[in-house]
Amino acid sequence: MIDHPTGSLASYPHHSGLPSFCSCIFGRMMGSQNDGATTTTDDTPKTSSRISLSLCVTWLAVMILTLAAHTLRADDARGRFYDQLRQRQLFGLVESDCLMRLAGRSLSVRDRSDLTLELSRTYAAHAWQTIGAEQDDLWQRGQQVLSPFLEQSPKSARHELFETQWALIDLSRAEWLLAQSELRVDDRTLKQKGLLATQAAIERLSQLESMLNKETRAAAAGSASGNKVGDKTGKPTNEKPDAPLTPYERRTLSQQIRFRWGTARLVQSKLSEPGSADRAAAIVAADELLSPLAAGTVGERLTSESLILLAEVARLRGDLDRESRVLNSIEKSLAVDATNDLRERFVIERVRWWLAKRQPAEAAAA
Fold first, then answer.
1. 254-257 CB contacts, 8 Å cutoff, 24+ apart
2. Which long-range contacts (CB under 8 A, 24 or more apart) does 351-357 make?
3. Looking at CB atoms within 10 Å, which of 39, 265, 307, 317 has the fewest?
4. Rounded distance, CA 30 to CA 70, Å?
5. Hey, which of 15-19, 63-67, 215-219, 353-357 has the most confident mean pLDDT?
6. Looking at the DSSP assignment, which residues form a beta bridge with residue 236?
């Protein structure tokens, strides 16, 4: 069963430093604002502050998205234990435990698939804490362990989860390259690599959504006709070692895929050249994907996540009046039920809205 939004999707980066990290964001923002108002012959401080702000906010966005959204695994004690270890950056422990268990011969198909997904998520989480060749190797390992389940024929009963995890690693790599490109503004190669990773994620996510919709319709038609899964003898049975996703799980996964797809489009817009047609098209696409999700049930995690990204989309489109309305909706949503990370992200986006309106005093009081 797919979890409700109480844990991590892939636990890519570590989140225990959220409060101290967020407390520095406003200082970065105000520093950037003040730099813009200061005349100086040395552009280095101004540029450094602006780049630091972009890096911090980008890193925070990735961190929250991967930690706060719906998980794509069974809600079991072992999975929660692995989440806790990843949050404490004890990646080696999770990796060694998964590898040891996967080496066993008595694993069920379901246990083997769950452990493989946990191992892939851990490699991806570990990659966010490294750089260079080691980081590239970890991302590569995160996708390589998925390959046997994606290449086998017939497909794994829960192949959608492996497809999704592969796309999330591409998206994570794109977010990392976006952050690096904002640090090294003259390195155009980083943006090109980021755009390639983003496009790979977008293509896979769009195909996944189409596939899930098709499978949902097929399952509904089969249910209406009274068909049941049969065993090798042709006898009807409701049991299967690695049961496929239920209709509810497919719908939940489909919503998450649209959310990640919208996120990928937002990343794509930031990696594209300012003022370009590609940038404008990516922002519009992100808007179209996130708007229906933002209209969901007030207080639900996915609704709040989508609203926060939609506020950023409105700001990037230059529609500050619309962003104000979205921020007001977020505030109402957070009043129902919200974790600290959502409240912190809301405050950060509110501050950025005030700064976009060139009102630093109001931003300071936000």
1. 254/209, 254/212, 254/213, 254/216, 255/70, 255/293, 255/302, 256/9, 256/69, 256/70, 256/72, 256/164, 256/302, 257/164, 257/205, 257/208, 257/209, 257/212
2. 351/25, 351/26, 351/29, 352/29, 352/57, 352/312, 352/315, 353/311, 353/315, 353/320, 353/323, 353/324, 353/327, 355/29, 355/33, 356/315, 356/320, 357/320
3. 39
4. 33
5. 353-357
6. 230
Q: For position 48, what pLDDT does the model report? A: 42
Assigned token pair, 280: 């404008």
Q: Which amino acid is at 146?
A: L
Alpha helices in the chain (DSSP H): 18-36, 44-68, 77-87, 91-102, 109-127, 132-144, 147-151, 159-183, 188-224, 247-271, 277-294, 301-316, 320-336, 340-356, 360-365
Q: Tell me the pLDDT tens digit for each residue of 211-236.
A: 888 877 777 666 655 555 444 444 43
Q: Which two tokens stand for residue 32?
A: 């950037």
Q: Are 55 and 176 in contact, with CB atoms under 8 Å apart?
A: no
The span from the CA of 164 to the CA of 120, in Å, is 11
Report the chain's mean pLDDT, rounded to a whole number: 78
Nearest to 81 by CA among 122, 139, 116, 127: 122
What b/e sequence results for 113-122 when a residue is b if at least 16 CB atoms lie within 10 Å of its CB, and e otherwise? bbbbbbbbbb
∠ CA 109-125-72, nearest 5°, is 45
Contact 146, 116 (CB under 8 A): yes
> What DSSP letter does each residue of 174-222 carry, written as one string?
HHHHHHHHHHSTT-HHHHHHHHHHHHHHHHHHHHHHHHHHHHHHHHHHH
Q: Which one, of 102, 239, 256, lies nearest residue 167 by Cα?
A: 256
pTM of the entire predicted model: 0.75
Asked whether 38 and 360 are in contact (CB, 8 A), the reply is no
Peptide bond preceding 154: is omega within 30 degrees of 0, i.e. cis? yes
Q: Is-contact 170 201, C-beta < 8 A?
A: yes
Task: Report the candidate in 341, 251, 339, 329 with the shortest Cα–Cα distance to residue 297.
Answer: 329
